Task: structure prediction
Amino acid sequence: MTTVLEKVGTKTIEHLDYVGSLNMQLWATLRAMGSALPFVGNRYRWRATVRQMLQIGVDALPMVSLMAICTGFILAMQGASELRRFGALHYVIDLVAVGFTRELGPLITAIAVSGRSGSSFAAEIGTMKVTEELDSLRVMALEPVEFILAPKYLAALITVPCLTVVSNVFGILAGGLFMFFSTRLAPLLYFRSVLDSIVLRDVITGLIKSVAFATIIAHVGCLEGFRVRGGPDSVGRSTTNAVVKSTFLVIVADAVFTAIFYLTVKS
Amino acid sequence: MPIISVRDLVVEYDGRRILDGLSLDIEHGETMVLLGGSGSGKSTLLRQILALERPKSGSVHVKGTDITRCSAAELKGVRRSVGVAFQSAALFNSLSVEDNVALTLREHTRLAPSIVDLVVWMKLAVVGLAEFGKLYPQELSGGMKKRAAVARALALGPEILVLDEPSAGLDPIVAAELDELILLLKEAFQMTVIVVTHELPSAFRIADRIAMLYQGRFCSIGTRDEIKASQDPQVRQFLNRIPGNIAKAPAVAAYFEKYLHTPEAA
Result:
Protein backbone atom coordinates (compact mmCIF):
# COMPACT_ATOMS: atom_id res chain seq x y z
CA MET A 1 0.00 0.00 0.00
CA THR A 2 2.69 2.45 0.99
CA THR A 3 4.71 1.56 -2.07
CA VAL A 4 1.80 2.44 -4.35
CA LEU A 5 1.33 5.71 -2.49
CA GLU A 6 5.03 6.37 -2.66
CA LYS A 7 5.11 5.75 -6.40
CA VAL A 8 2.10 7.98 -7.03
CA GLY A 9 3.66 10.67 -4.86
CA THR A 10 7.07 10.48 -6.56
CA LYS A 11 5.52 10.65 -10.02
CA THR A 12 3.31 13.58 -9.01
CA ILE A 13 6.27 15.48 -7.62
CA GLU A 14 8.29 14.70 -10.75
CA HIS A 15 5.58 16.11 -12.98
CA LEU A 16 5.07 19.19 -10.82
CA ASP A 17 8.83 19.68 -10.87
CA TYR A 18 8.77 19.51 -14.67
CA VAL A 19 5.97 22.04 -14.98
CA GLY A 20 7.70 24.27 -12.45
CA SER A 21 10.99 24.15 -14.34
CA LEU A 22 9.18 24.94 -17.57
CA ASN A 23 7.59 28.02 -16.03
CA MET A 24 10.83 29.18 -14.45
CA GLN A 25 12.60 28.77 -17.76
CA LEU A 26 9.85 30.68 -19.55
CA TRP A 27 10.10 33.54 -17.07
CA ALA A 28 13.90 33.67 -17.28
CA THR A 29 13.73 33.65 -21.08
CA LEU A 30 11.15 36.43 -21.18
CA ARG A 31 13.44 38.54 -19.00
CA ALA A 32 16.42 37.85 -21.25
CA MET A 33 14.44 38.36 -24.43
CA GLY A 34 15.23 42.07 -24.75
CA SER A 35 18.77 41.24 -25.79
CA ALA A 36 17.54 39.21 -28.76
CA LEU A 37 15.40 41.99 -30.21
CA PRO A 38 16.61 43.84 -33.29
CA PHE A 39 17.96 47.42 -32.91
CA VAL A 40 17.56 47.64 -29.13
CA GLY A 41 19.24 44.35 -28.23
CA ASN A 42 22.61 42.74 -28.79
CA ARG A 43 23.29 42.39 -32.52
CA TYR A 44 24.89 38.94 -32.13
CA ARG A 45 21.71 37.63 -30.49
CA TRP A 46 19.58 39.10 -33.27
CA ARG A 47 21.82 37.43 -35.85
CA ALA A 48 21.41 34.14 -33.99
CA THR A 49 17.66 34.76 -33.99
CA VAL A 50 17.64 35.28 -37.75
CA ARG A 51 19.63 32.07 -38.24
CA GLN A 52 17.12 30.25 -36.05
CA MET A 53 14.22 31.75 -37.99
CA LEU A 54 15.71 30.39 -41.19
CA GLN A 55 16.01 26.95 -39.60
CA ILE A 56 12.63 26.84 -37.89
CA GLY A 57 10.66 28.70 -40.52
CA VAL A 58 12.11 28.81 -44.01
CA ASP A 59 13.50 25.29 -43.98
CA ALA A 60 10.14 23.97 -42.78
CA LEU A 61 8.15 25.70 -45.52
CA PRO A 62 8.05 22.83 -48.06
CA MET A 63 7.12 20.29 -45.42
CA VAL A 64 4.44 22.43 -43.79
CA SER A 65 2.89 23.40 -47.13
CA LEU A 66 2.79 19.80 -48.31
CA MET A 67 1.25 18.67 -45.04
CA ALA A 68 -1.33 21.46 -45.29
CA ILE A 69 -2.20 20.50 -48.87
CA CYS A 70 -2.67 16.85 -47.92
CA THR A 71 -4.72 17.73 -44.87
CA GLY A 72 -6.83 20.13 -46.93
CA PHE A 73 -7.59 17.38 -49.42
CA ILE A 74 -8.36 14.88 -46.67
CA LEU A 75 -10.70 17.29 -44.90
CA ALA A 76 -12.49 18.20 -48.14
CA MET A 77 -12.88 14.58 -49.25
CA GLN A 78 -14.05 13.31 -45.87
CA GLY A 79 -16.46 16.22 -45.57
CA ALA A 80 -17.75 15.86 -49.10
CA SER A 81 -18.54 12.15 -48.78
CA GLU A 82 -20.88 12.89 -45.85
CA LEU A 83 -22.23 16.29 -46.89
CA ARG A 84 -23.11 15.04 -50.38
CA ARG A 85 -25.78 12.82 -48.86
CA PHE A 86 -27.57 15.91 -47.59
CA GLY A 87 -27.01 17.81 -50.80
CA ALA A 88 -24.93 20.31 -48.86
CA LEU A 89 -21.70 19.97 -50.79
CA HIS A 90 -21.03 23.72 -50.72
CA TYR A 91 -20.56 23.45 -46.96
CA VAL A 92 -17.22 21.79 -47.70
CA ILE A 93 -15.95 25.30 -48.36
CA ASP A 94 -16.89 26.46 -44.88
CA LEU A 95 -15.57 23.24 -43.38
CA VAL A 96 -12.15 23.72 -44.93
CA ALA A 97 -11.96 27.46 -44.37
CA VAL A 98 -13.12 27.45 -40.77
CA GLY A 99 -11.44 24.15 -39.92
CA PHE A 100 -8.07 25.36 -41.14
CA THR A 101 -8.02 28.87 -39.74
CA ARG A 102 -9.30 27.83 -36.33
CA GLU A 103 -7.80 24.44 -35.83
CA LEU A 104 -5.85 22.48 -38.40
CA GLY A 105 -3.49 25.20 -39.57
CA PRO A 106 -2.02 25.88 -36.13
CA LEU A 107 -2.09 22.21 -35.17
CA ILE A 108 -0.31 20.65 -38.13
CA THR A 109 2.22 23.49 -38.11
CA ALA A 110 2.89 22.82 -34.44
CA ILE A 111 3.32 19.10 -35.05
CA ALA A 112 5.71 19.70 -37.95
CA VAL A 113 7.75 22.25 -35.98
CA SER A 114 7.88 20.08 -32.89
CA GLY A 115 9.19 17.18 -34.95
CA ARG A 116 11.74 19.28 -36.82
CA SER A 117 12.84 21.97 -34.38
CA GLY A 118 11.79 20.78 -30.92
CA SER A 119 13.94 17.70 -31.36
CA SER A 120 16.83 19.67 -32.78
CA PHE A 121 16.75 22.11 -29.84
CA ALA A 122 16.95 19.22 -27.41
CA ALA A 123 19.75 17.52 -29.33
CA GLU A 124 21.75 20.72 -29.76
CA ILE A 125 21.53 21.85 -26.14
CA GLY A 126 21.96 18.29 -24.85
CA THR A 127 25.15 17.86 -26.85
CA MET A 128 26.45 21.20 -25.60
CA LYS A 129 25.79 20.01 -22.08
CA VAL A 130 27.61 16.71 -22.58
CA THR A 131 30.65 18.40 -24.15
CA GLU A 132 30.84 21.02 -21.32
CA GLU A 133 30.05 23.79 -23.82
CA LEU A 134 27.23 25.06 -21.61
CA ASP A 135 29.60 25.27 -18.65
CA SER A 136 32.16 27.07 -20.72
CA LEU A 137 29.51 29.58 -21.81
CA ARG A 138 28.63 30.21 -18.19
CA VAL A 139 32.22 30.70 -17.07
CA MET A 140 32.64 33.15 -19.95
CA ALA A 141 29.85 35.16 -18.29
CA LEU A 142 27.41 34.36 -21.10
CA GLU A 143 24.19 32.98 -19.66
CA PRO A 144 22.83 30.08 -21.75
CA VAL A 145 19.32 31.45 -21.22
CA GLU A 146 20.27 34.66 -22.97
CA PHE A 147 22.75 33.18 -25.41
CA ILE A 148 20.83 30.14 -26.62
CA LEU A 149 17.26 30.19 -25.36
CA ALA A 150 16.19 33.76 -26.05
CA PRO A 151 17.07 33.68 -29.79
CA LYS A 152 15.40 30.30 -30.22
CA TYR A 153 12.24 31.37 -28.43
CA LEU A 154 12.00 34.68 -30.25
CA ALA A 155 12.55 32.92 -33.57
CA ALA A 156 9.83 30.38 -32.76
CA LEU A 157 7.43 33.14 -31.68
CA ILE A 158 7.87 34.89 -35.02
CA THR A 159 8.04 31.95 -37.40
CA VAL A 160 5.38 29.59 -36.05
CA PRO A 161 2.48 32.05 -36.61
CA CYS A 162 3.91 32.83 -40.06
CA LEU A 163 4.05 29.12 -40.88
CA THR A 164 0.50 28.83 -39.58
CA VAL A 165 -0.68 31.47 -42.05
CA VAL A 166 1.14 29.61 -44.84
CA SER A 167 -0.47 26.34 -43.86
CA ASN A 168 -3.90 28.02 -43.72
CA VAL A 169 -3.40 29.32 -47.25
CA PHE A 170 -2.25 25.98 -48.63
CA GLY A 171 -4.98 24.05 -46.85
CA ILE A 172 -7.66 26.31 -48.25
CA LEU A 173 -6.02 26.15 -51.69
CA ALA A 174 -6.21 22.35 -51.55
CA GLY A 175 -9.90 22.61 -50.67
CA GLY A 176 -10.40 24.82 -53.73
CA LEU A 177 -8.64 22.32 -55.97
CA PHE A 178 -10.85 19.57 -54.66
CA MET A 179 -14.00 21.61 -55.27
CA PHE A 180 -12.81 22.47 -58.78
CA PHE A 181 -12.16 18.86 -59.73
CA SER A 182 -15.23 17.37 -58.07
CA THR A 183 -17.88 20.01 -58.91
CA ARG A 184 -16.16 22.30 -61.44
CA LEU A 185 -16.63 25.17 -58.98
CA ALA A 186 -14.83 28.20 -60.37
CA PRO A 187 -11.78 29.08 -58.24
CA LEU A 188 -12.83 32.72 -58.01
CA LEU A 189 -16.22 31.74 -56.68
CA TYR A 190 -14.58 29.39 -54.23
CA PHE A 191 -12.33 32.11 -52.83
CA ARG A 192 -15.25 34.50 -52.58
CA SER A 193 -17.17 32.00 -50.45
CA VAL A 194 -14.06 31.31 -48.41
CA LEU A 195 -13.70 34.99 -47.64
CA ASP A 196 -17.38 35.07 -46.66
CA SER A 197 -17.01 32.22 -44.23
CA ILE A 198 -13.74 33.27 -42.57
CA VAL A 199 -14.15 35.68 -39.71
CA LEU A 200 -11.25 37.74 -38.42
CA ARG A 201 -11.87 36.26 -34.99
CA ASP A 202 -11.16 32.75 -36.26
CA VAL A 203 -7.87 33.77 -37.79
CA ILE A 204 -6.84 35.57 -34.63
CA THR A 205 -7.75 32.68 -32.33
CA GLY A 206 -5.73 30.41 -34.62
CA LEU A 207 -2.74 32.74 -34.35
CA ILE A 208 -3.06 32.99 -30.57
CA LYS A 209 -2.99 29.21 -30.46
CA SER A 210 0.07 29.08 -32.66
CA VAL A 211 1.91 31.50 -30.35
CA ALA A 212 1.09 29.21 -27.42
CA PHE A 213 2.26 26.18 -29.40
CA ALA A 214 5.51 27.93 -30.29
CA THR A 215 6.09 28.61 -26.59
CA ILE A 216 5.46 24.99 -25.70
CA ILE A 217 7.67 23.58 -28.45
CA ALA A 218 10.62 25.91 -27.83
CA HIS A 219 10.57 25.52 -24.07
CA VAL A 220 9.97 21.79 -23.87
CA GLY A 221 12.70 21.23 -26.48
CA CYS A 222 15.21 23.42 -24.65
CA LEU A 223 14.31 22.14 -21.19
CA GLU A 224 14.82 18.56 -22.34
CA GLY A 225 18.23 19.62 -23.62
CA PHE A 226 19.16 21.24 -20.31
CA ARG A 227 18.01 18.17 -18.39
CA VAL A 228 20.47 15.89 -20.16
CA ARG A 229 22.59 14.09 -17.59
CA GLY A 230 25.48 11.84 -18.47
CA GLY A 231 26.35 10.72 -21.95
CA PRO A 232 25.17 10.49 -25.55
CA ASP A 233 22.41 7.97 -24.78
CA SER A 234 20.81 10.62 -22.60
CA VAL A 235 20.83 13.06 -25.53
CA GLY A 236 18.89 10.53 -27.60
CA ARG A 237 16.34 10.03 -24.86
CA SER A 238 15.89 13.77 -24.43
CA THR A 239 15.34 14.24 -28.14
CA THR A 240 12.58 11.65 -28.11
CA ASN A 241 11.10 13.18 -24.97
CA ALA A 242 11.12 16.63 -26.51
CA VAL A 243 8.96 15.51 -29.43
CA VAL A 244 6.65 13.30 -27.39
CA LYS A 245 6.08 15.80 -24.60
CA SER A 246 5.73 18.85 -26.81
CA THR A 247 3.25 17.11 -29.13
CA PHE A 248 1.27 15.95 -26.12
CA LEU A 249 1.28 19.38 -24.49
CA VAL A 250 0.37 21.06 -27.79
CA ILE A 251 -2.75 18.93 -28.07
CA VAL A 252 -3.70 19.51 -24.42
CA ALA A 253 -3.21 23.25 -24.86
CA ASP A 254 -5.25 23.10 -28.06
CA ALA A 255 -8.13 21.50 -26.17
CA VAL A 256 -7.95 24.15 -23.45
CA PHE A 257 -7.85 27.04 -25.91
CA THR A 258 -10.64 25.63 -28.04
CA ALA A 259 -12.80 25.21 -24.94
CA ILE A 260 -12.13 28.79 -23.90
CA PHE A 261 -12.96 30.17 -27.34
CA TYR A 262 -16.04 27.97 -27.58
CA LEU A 263 -17.37 29.14 -24.22
CA THR A 264 -16.66 32.82 -24.88
CA VAL A 265 -18.45 32.71 -28.21
CA LYS A 266 -21.62 31.28 -26.67
CA SER A 267 -22.05 33.92 -24.02
CA MET B 1 44.93 38.65 0.82
CA PRO B 2 44.49 35.39 -1.07
CA ILE B 3 42.89 35.78 -4.50
CA ILE B 4 40.81 32.64 -3.98
CA SER B 5 39.79 31.46 -0.57
CA VAL B 6 37.69 28.36 0.03
CA ARG B 7 36.22 27.95 3.54
CA ASP B 8 34.63 24.82 5.06
CA LEU B 9 33.16 23.79 1.74
CA VAL B 10 30.69 20.91 1.93
CA VAL B 11 29.11 19.44 -1.21
CA GLU B 12 26.61 16.60 -1.27
CA TYR B 13 24.95 14.84 -4.21
CA ASP B 14 21.82 12.93 -3.19
CA GLY B 15 23.01 12.71 0.41
CA ARG B 16 26.45 11.41 -0.62
CA ARG B 17 29.17 13.69 0.70
CA ILE B 18 31.62 14.56 -2.10
CA LEU B 19 33.54 17.41 -0.48
CA ASP B 20 33.85 17.34 3.28
CA GLY B 21 34.70 20.71 4.79
CA LEU B 22 37.51 21.85 2.50
CA SER B 23 39.50 25.00 3.17
CA LEU B 24 42.13 26.34 0.81
CA ASP B 25 43.81 29.67 0.12
CA ILE B 26 45.36 30.44 -3.26
CA GLU B 27 47.69 33.41 -3.31
CA HIS B 28 48.04 35.95 -6.08
CA GLY B 29 50.42 34.79 -8.79
CA GLU B 30 50.97 31.24 -7.64
CA THR B 31 50.36 28.03 -9.52
CA MET B 32 48.20 25.71 -7.46
CA VAL B 33 47.83 22.13 -8.58
CA LEU B 34 44.88 20.15 -7.31
CA LEU B 35 46.08 16.58 -7.34
CA GLY B 36 44.00 13.53 -6.67
CA GLY B 37 42.81 10.23 -8.01
CA SER B 38 39.57 9.59 -9.88
CA GLY B 39 36.57 10.33 -7.69
CA SER B 40 38.58 12.27 -5.12
CA GLY B 41 36.41 15.34 -5.67
CA LYS B 42 38.88 17.53 -7.52
CA SER B 43 36.56 18.24 -10.45
CA THR B 44 33.72 18.97 -7.99
CA LEU B 45 35.95 21.45 -6.17
CA LEU B 46 36.78 23.09 -9.48
CA ARG B 47 33.08 23.42 -10.35
CA GLN B 48 32.57 25.13 -7.00
CA ILE B 49 35.43 27.56 -7.60
CA LEU B 50 33.85 28.41 -10.97
CA ALA B 51 30.41 28.80 -9.32
CA LEU B 52 28.88 26.24 -11.68
CA GLU B 53 27.24 24.58 -8.69
CA ARG B 54 26.14 25.74 -5.27
CA PRO B 55 27.62 24.11 -2.17
CA LYS B 56 25.59 22.73 0.73
CA SER B 57 27.53 24.95 3.10
CA GLY B 58 30.75 26.91 3.23
CA SER B 59 31.96 29.75 1.06
CA VAL B 60 34.22 30.46 -1.89
CA HIS B 61 35.70 33.96 -2.15
CA VAL B 62 37.20 34.98 -5.46
CA LYS B 63 38.85 38.42 -5.40
CA GLY B 64 36.96 39.19 -2.22
CA THR B 65 33.50 38.32 -3.55
CA ASP B 66 31.66 35.35 -2.08
CA ILE B 67 30.59 33.66 -5.29
CA THR B 68 28.32 31.19 -3.50
CA ARG B 69 26.06 34.01 -2.36
CA CYS B 70 26.62 37.03 -4.61
CA SER B 71 24.16 38.39 -7.17
CA ALA B 72 24.19 37.37 -10.83
CA ALA B 73 25.68 40.73 -11.82
CA GLU B 74 28.55 40.41 -9.34
CA LEU B 75 29.20 36.87 -10.49
CA LYS B 76 29.43 38.10 -14.08
CA GLY B 77 32.03 40.61 -12.98
CA VAL B 78 34.09 37.93 -11.24
CA ARG B 79 33.83 35.59 -14.18
CA ARG B 80 35.33 38.13 -16.54
CA SER B 81 38.58 37.88 -14.65
CA VAL B 82 38.67 34.07 -14.77
CA GLY B 83 39.68 32.13 -17.88
CA VAL B 84 38.84 28.45 -18.02
CA ALA B 85 39.99 25.63 -20.29
CA PHE B 86 37.86 22.54 -19.76
CA GLN B 87 38.98 18.95 -19.89
CA SER B 88 37.20 18.28 -23.19
CA ALA B 89 38.35 21.70 -24.48
CA ALA B 90 34.62 22.55 -24.97
CA LEU B 91 35.24 24.69 -28.04
CA PHE B 92 32.06 25.70 -29.82
CA ASN B 93 31.89 23.39 -32.79
CA SER B 94 29.82 25.74 -34.90
CA LEU B 95 32.46 28.47 -34.68
CA SER B 96 35.96 28.56 -36.16
CA VAL B 97 38.93 28.66 -33.78
CA GLU B 98 39.25 32.41 -34.32
CA ASP B 99 35.60 33.02 -33.55
CA ASN B 100 35.86 30.84 -30.46
CA VAL B 101 38.65 33.04 -29.14
CA ALA B 102 36.92 36.23 -30.29
CA LEU B 103 33.60 35.37 -28.65
CA THR B 104 34.20 36.98 -25.24
CA LEU B 105 36.00 39.93 -26.81
CA ARG B 106 33.00 40.67 -29.01
CA GLU B 107 30.50 40.06 -26.23
CA HIS B 108 32.14 41.84 -23.32
CA THR B 109 34.17 44.62 -24.90
CA ARG B 110 33.55 47.39 -27.39
CA LEU B 111 36.78 46.85 -29.29
CA ALA B 112 36.79 47.60 -33.01
CA PRO B 113 36.72 44.49 -35.24
CA SER B 114 40.29 45.09 -36.42
CA ILE B 115 41.53 45.22 -32.81
CA VAL B 116 39.59 42.05 -31.99
CA ASP B 117 41.29 40.30 -34.93
CA LEU B 118 44.67 41.48 -33.71
CA VAL B 119 44.06 40.33 -30.13
CA VAL B 120 42.78 36.97 -31.36
CA TRP B 121 45.89 36.54 -33.51
CA MET B 122 48.09 37.38 -30.54
CA LYS B 123 46.39 34.92 -28.24
CA LEU B 124 46.57 32.19 -30.86
CA ALA B 125 50.24 33.01 -31.49
CA VAL B 126 50.98 32.64 -27.77
CA VAL B 127 49.71 29.07 -27.82
CA GLY B 128 51.32 28.40 -31.22
CA LEU B 129 48.14 28.19 -33.30
CA ALA B 130 48.45 31.43 -35.26
CA GLU B 131 48.10 29.73 -38.66
CA PHE B 132 45.15 27.58 -37.61
CA GLY B 133 42.59 30.26 -36.79
CA LYS B 134 40.39 29.56 -39.79
CA LEU B 135 39.98 25.87 -38.97
CA TYR B 136 37.04 24.41 -37.08
CA PRO B 137 37.48 22.54 -33.78
CA GLN B 138 36.73 19.15 -35.33
CA GLU B 139 39.67 19.64 -37.73
CA LEU B 140 42.17 20.00 -34.86
CA SER B 141 44.12 17.30 -33.02
CA GLY B 142 43.58 16.73 -29.30
CA GLY B 143 46.60 18.77 -28.25
CA MET B 144 45.69 21.63 -30.58
CA LYS B 145 42.17 21.70 -29.19
CA LYS B 146 43.53 22.02 -25.68
CA ARG B 147 45.82 24.85 -26.76
CA ALA B 148 42.95 26.57 -28.55
CA ALA B 149 40.92 26.28 -25.35
CA VAL B 150 43.80 27.93 -23.46
CA ALA B 151 43.88 30.72 -26.05
CA ARG B 152 40.16 31.25 -25.58
CA ALA B 153 40.59 31.31 -21.80
CA LEU B 154 43.27 33.98 -22.23
CA ALA B 155 41.14 36.18 -24.50
CA LEU B 156 40.09 38.77 -21.93
CA GLY B 157 43.47 38.77 -20.18
CA PRO B 158 42.23 37.02 -17.03
CA GLU B 159 43.88 37.28 -13.63
CA ILE B 160 43.08 33.67 -12.90
CA LEU B 161 43.60 30.84 -15.35
CA VAL B 162 41.91 27.53 -14.59
CA LEU B 163 42.91 24.36 -16.43
CA ASP B 164 40.97 21.15 -15.96
CA GLU B 165 43.11 18.09 -16.74
CA PRO B 166 45.21 19.83 -19.40
CA SER B 167 47.30 16.75 -20.19
CA ALA B 168 44.57 14.10 -20.04
CA GLY B 169 44.49 12.02 -23.20
CA LEU B 170 47.62 13.59 -24.68
CA ASP B 171 50.89 11.87 -25.46
CA PRO B 172 53.83 12.68 -23.13
CA ILE B 173 55.52 15.04 -25.58
CA VAL B 174 52.42 17.15 -26.20
CA ALA B 175 51.62 17.08 -22.48
CA ALA B 176 55.14 18.35 -21.72
CA GLU B 177 54.71 21.10 -24.30
CA LEU B 178 51.53 22.13 -22.57
CA ASP B 179 53.35 22.24 -19.22
CA GLU B 180 55.96 24.56 -20.71
CA LEU B 181 53.18 26.70 -22.14
CA ILE B 182 51.59 27.03 -18.71
CA LEU B 183 54.93 28.05 -17.18
CA LEU B 184 55.50 30.55 -19.96
CA LEU B 185 52.04 32.10 -19.54
CA LYS B 186 52.50 32.43 -15.82
CA GLU B 187 55.87 34.08 -16.35
CA ALA B 188 54.59 36.40 -19.06
CA PHE B 189 51.22 37.45 -17.65
CA GLN B 190 51.75 37.05 -13.86
CA MET B 191 48.56 35.06 -13.63
CA THR B 192 47.27 32.91 -10.85
CA VAL B 193 46.98 29.42 -12.32
CA ILE B 194 44.88 26.57 -10.98
CA VAL B 195 45.47 23.20 -12.57
CA VAL B 196 43.49 20.06 -11.85
CA THR B 197 45.39 16.94 -12.77
CA HIS B 198 46.35 13.44 -11.79
CA GLU B 199 49.58 13.40 -13.82
CA LEU B 200 52.49 13.49 -11.38
CA PRO B 201 55.30 14.63 -13.72
CA SER B 202 53.16 17.50 -14.94
CA ALA B 203 52.13 18.46 -11.40
CA PHE B 204 55.72 18.57 -10.14
CA ARG B 205 56.88 20.51 -13.19
CA ILE B 206 54.42 23.39 -12.99
CA ALA B 207 53.26 23.64 -9.37
CA ASP B 208 54.24 26.24 -6.79
CA ARG B 209 52.03 24.47 -4.31
CA ILE B 210 50.12 21.22 -4.51
CA ALA B 211 46.88 20.39 -2.72
CA MET B 212 46.24 16.68 -2.63
CA LEU B 213 42.65 15.49 -2.37
CA TYR B 214 41.58 12.14 -1.05
CA GLN B 215 37.92 11.17 -0.60
CA GLY B 216 36.69 14.75 -0.42
CA ARG B 217 39.33 16.05 1.99
CA PHE B 218 42.77 17.53 1.59
CA CYS B 219 45.24 15.00 2.87
CA SER B 220 48.15 17.33 2.25
CA ILE B 221 48.78 20.89 1.07
CA GLY B 222 52.29 22.15 0.50
CA THR B 223 55.08 23.02 -1.87
CA ARG B 224 56.49 20.46 -4.30
CA ASP B 225 59.23 19.44 -1.91
CA GLU B 226 56.90 19.22 1.07
CA ILE B 227 54.61 16.89 -0.89
CA LYS B 228 57.53 14.79 -2.09
CA ALA B 229 58.76 14.42 1.49
CA SER B 230 55.30 13.90 2.97
CA GLN B 231 54.80 10.79 5.05
CA ASP B 232 51.02 10.86 4.74
CA PRO B 233 49.96 7.32 3.71
CA GLN B 234 47.58 8.55 0.97
CA VAL B 235 50.22 10.83 -0.52
CA ARG B 236 52.79 8.02 -0.43
CA GLN B 237 50.34 5.64 -2.05
CA PHE B 238 49.64 8.11 -4.84
CA LEU B 239 53.26 9.07 -5.44
CA ASN B 240 54.55 5.50 -5.34
CA ARG B 241 51.70 4.19 -7.46
CA ILE B 242 50.65 1.52 -4.97
CA PRO B 243 47.43 -0.14 -6.08
CA GLY B 244 44.47 0.06 -3.74
CA ASN B 245 41.65 -2.36 -4.34
CA ILE B 246 42.56 -4.99 -6.84
CA ALA B 247 41.00 -8.35 -7.46
CA LYS B 248 42.89 -10.92 -5.41
CA ALA B 249 44.00 -13.85 -7.56
CA PRO B 250 42.93 -16.57 -5.09
CA ALA B 251 39.47 -15.00 -4.79
CA VAL B 252 39.02 -15.01 -8.57
CA ALA B 253 40.23 -18.62 -8.75
CA ALA B 254 37.84 -19.63 -5.96
CA TYR B 255 34.96 -17.96 -7.83
CA PHE B 256 35.66 -19.93 -11.01
CA GLU B 257 36.12 -23.09 -8.99
CA LYS B 258 32.68 -22.59 -7.49
CA TYR B 259 31.19 -21.77 -10.90
CA LEU B 260 32.61 -24.95 -12.44
CA HIS B 261 30.96 -27.04 -9.75
CA THR B 262 27.49 -25.58 -10.20
CA PRO B 263 25.06 -27.78 -12.19
CA GLU B 264 24.41 -25.22 -14.98
CA ALA B 265 28.08 -25.15 -16.02
CA ALA B 266 28.33 -28.90 -16.14
The radius of gyration of chain A is 21 Å. Chain A touches chain B at residues 42, 44, 131-133, 135-136, 138-143 (CB under 8 Å). Residues 73 and 178 of chain A are 7 Å apart (CA to CA). Chain A has a mean pLDDT of 92.
